[in-house]
Design goal:
Layout (H helix, E strand, L loop, with lengths): L2 E5 L6 H8 L7 E5 L10 H15 L2 E2 L3 H11 L1 H10 L2 H7 L11 H11 L1 H8 L4 E4 L2 E4 L15 H6 L2 H4 L8 E4 L16 E2 L5 E3 L12 E5 L2 E5 L1
Parallel strand pairs: 1-2, 2-3, 5-6, 6-8
Antiparallel strand pairs: 1-9, 4-5, 7-8, 9-10
């Protein structure tokens, strides 16, 4: 397709996602979401299921974010990771994935067993998420890459979903324009606004408007020549 319709971090905000999708043209625009579908917001499971349907019908692209990795880390080591995951909004995801809402009475191991059984399809989808998508001279990735490497594609997966200042403040000699999420733009914009953030050389574009914190769920239309418009 000639255009990509890219959406920032959704974080369980199903209503905001549905509203933004009304502006997407599936006939000419490839849909891409920058990662962090889950945690913090009111309905992570609905967002995952919507993503699954959009991937099946339109080959939409949903990247992996650090919150997808936190969920998978918790599933592998529930007792060790429980408190940290809850502190990052994980309980909203856990409770959305199970039918029995008496989660406070369950041990971490019991919760994992319930989630693995009741949300097997959703977890399979999460585990299949790619770390980045390259299109023309654009790279879509949740957090960024290691700009000190001779080949940015050799960036550690952990950095692709977690990196912040070393990437945002680094020197980009890759010839690529990176479109990212992960860091709410209010912490990058000098005026504290949730508007889309551009690095000084405009080679890094952050579209995480911090929707789950009361900001905005951003969408941008990207063509081969650049970002055509914010929607």
């Amino acid at each position: 397709m000639d255009e990509i319709f890219a959406i920032g971090d959704v974080h369980g905000e199903m209503d905001l996602m549905e509203e933004l999708l009304k502006k997407w043209d599936p006939e000419k625009q490839q849909l891409l979401v920058i990662g962090d579908l889950i945690d913090r917001g009111p309905d992570p499971r609905a967002v995952i299921r919507k993503a699954m349907a959009l991937e099946k019908q339109y080959q939409a692209i949903f990247l992996r974010g650090n919150h997808e990795n936190m969920l998978l880390d918790w599933l592998r080591d529930p007792c060790e990771k429980m408190m940290y995951y809850i502190s990052q909004g994980g309980m909203e995801t856990i409770e959305s994935l199970i039918t029995n809402k008496t989660s406070a009475k369950m041990t971490p191991d019991e919760l994992v067993r319930r989630v693995e059984i009741e949300a097997a399809a959703e977890l399979a989808f999460i585990r299949e998420r790619p770390y980045y998508h390259e299109w023309h001279h654009f790279v879509f990735v949740h957090a960024g890459v290691d700009l000190t490497l001779s080949d940015w594609k050799k960036t550690k997966p952990h950095d692709m979903v977690w990196i912040r200042e070393p990437f945002q403040e680094g020197v980009n000699n890759t010839g690529k324009t990176f479109i990212i999420g992960h860091t709410p733009t209010s912490s990058l914009n000098a005026d504290g606004s949730s508007a889309i953030w551009y690095s000084p050389d405009r080679s890094i574009v952050d579209i995480d408007g911090g929707a789950v914190f009361g900001g905005e769920l951003h969408g941008v239309v990207v063509t081969e020549s650049g970002i055509e418009k914010n929607v």
